[in-house]
Amino acid sequence: MHINGWRLVVCRLAGIIDAFRFNLLSVGPMILPEIHEFLGCRTPDGWIQAALADQETLLIDHKNCEFKAASTALSLIAKYHSHVDLINMMSRLAREELVHHEQVMRLMKRRKIELRQLSAGRYASGLRKVVRSHEPVKLVDTLVVGAFIEARSCERFEALVPHLDEELGKFYFGLLKSEARHFQGYLKLAYQYGDAKDIAQVIDRVRAAEQELIETPDVEFRFHSGIPAAA
Ligand SMILES: [Fe+2]
Ligand SMILES: [Fe+2]
Predict the structure, then answer these.
(1) How far is the CA of 179 from the centre of ligand 1 (A)?
(2) For 72-96, how does the pLDDT look when each residue is reduced to its tens digit (9 = 90+)?
(3) What spacing in Å lies between the alpha carbon of 80 and ligand 1's midpoint?
(4) pTM for this entry
């Protein structure tokens, strides 16, 4: 076998060992394959390398993402004040995201990572562009966008876990299970408040936009950024 062939075999074996080490195969019945299928692409290797090389920025932006996830959930409660199931889910989600926010803050403190201002990346604003501006479809689009953000977060944690130190690896493995649940919750609400045929088209539209944000060069490294642009 050619040397590259052996290298591939060794990489695959290492991936399988990591999957067992972190029990990645037991995240939930079939949930990781479902998430891979839902997303238009996997995280490019260039992003993983950039994240490993700048874990400080990764953690600061991750902390900001947890806060934004909670604040989005709260603003949905304020806006859709007669949607009981949405309010119940978003209330639980906001609490959970704030707990994640506190957990990242604690981890940063242990690692002596100072808080600093980070500008928001292009990802969330890029996805918001595909949300229709009138109700009731605005809510459906917003929920589908939420499902994609949670699915991508889950997929990124999964991609990072095998490469991280034990503490961060365990933490991110725990989080990927939460994000998988949040993905399912957002999608369930979209189907509850929308029309299945329309949602299929919304998913296609958001999937294409999301894939582009992930697979095109991005000048800023963030938790949800694209391929790091060459300096
Ligand atoms: Fe979270
Ligand atoms: Fe989440």
Answers:
(1) 6
(2) 999 999 999 999 999 999 999 999 9
(3) 22
(4) 0.88
